[in-house]
Amino acid sequence: xxxxxxxxxxxxxxxxxxxxxxxxxxxxxxxxxxxxxxxxxxxxxxxxxxxxxxxxxxxxxxxxxxxxxxxxxxxxxxxxxxxxxxxxxxxxxxxxxxxxxxxxxxxxxxxxxxxxxxxxxxxxxxxxxxxxxxxxxxxxxxxxxxxxxxxxxxxxxxxxxxxxxxxxxxxxxxxxxxxxxxxxxxxxxxxxxxxxxxxxxxxxxxxxxxxxxxxxxxxxxxxxxxxxxxxxxxxxxxxxxxxxxxxxxxxxxxxxxxxxxxxxxxxxxxxxxxxxxxxxxxxxxxxxxxxxxxxxxxxxxxxxxxxxxxxxxxxxxxxxxxxxxxxxxxxxxxxxxxxxx
Length: 341
Ligand code: EPU
Hints:
Radius of gyration: 20 Å
CATH architecture of the largest domain: 2-Layer Sandwich
Distance between the termini: 30 Å
CATH class of the largest domain: Alpha Beta
Helix content: 25-40%
Structural class: alpha+beta
Number of domains: 3
Strand order of the largest sheet: 6-7-12-10-11
Bound molecules: uridine-diphosphate-2(N-acetylglucosaminyl) butyric acid
Number of strands: 20
Number of helices: 10
């Protein structure tokens, strides 16, 4: 672990925004974390796939590199599989499947690291990581002490967690070193998501194995989502907005075809991608940034885009959606720094 200065972050964020970190440390030994000198500003970096760098960062970037994955223990009902925070999420899911421990297959091909999964409570195709998390291990960088969080402690919600609610994803206070997943031995296929059900039907599969679900989802994702290595992006750029039932009813009456997903609490989730497509932004560019032609939730960097290009595009999309539907779109990624160039 060597402290570096003026370290370029361009290749460490999947939008490939240019920015320097005043100080940078690749952390691959958690024993050293409690000994870190206090720093005025800190940011914890995982895969950089949910990140908008608005400019240079004048603090310390801690790049999580801990590796390791193992069966921590098992009981009659479940396998408890632990992975270090710096493990690549997709590789971990495939590895668990290959070991015969299914349960995370709906979350294949999501970019990023294991340590970032609980922060964002990553979710796709009818499953959220929080539904499989048994515990999260983290170091409180203010006190140097280790804490273990239960799923209840984690306060998981749609793209929500304790880390986001406490602002620790911005302040860099709590660094996740490992996550343990509870994978039930009584596995049940989760294919309720319409696109997934349709893809399995197309393949003539009525009783899918975990691997068949993973394969179908990989195909679906590759069809709709651009590979960040080819077309820089940060996955879904906006959260799907959640509105009260009455608002959803009025919107649906005024806008036939509006996708509405009723939530357990009676509220209704709308599809941000549909709203963005309706206001005409799908496939459109503003400067060097644009909205992806195959999925309107994805904002893409078409080459040398900068933070001010992103800000202009985000503001334009948000205001058009607000004007036509009266709905506020909230960006999903974390914004760091301030626009400087
Ligand atoms: N839609 C459109 N136009 C578009 C995109 C979507 O009309 O350009 C409509 C679809 O036809 C569908 C609805 O919107 O009726 C939902 O679309 P889709 O199933 O593609 O899912 P999504 O809501 O756009 C969410 C997650 C994705 C996840 C998919 C699949 C959020 C913000 N996004 O997208 O997560 O992969 O469901 O489960 O919740 C991510 O977070 O980075 C991400 C990719």
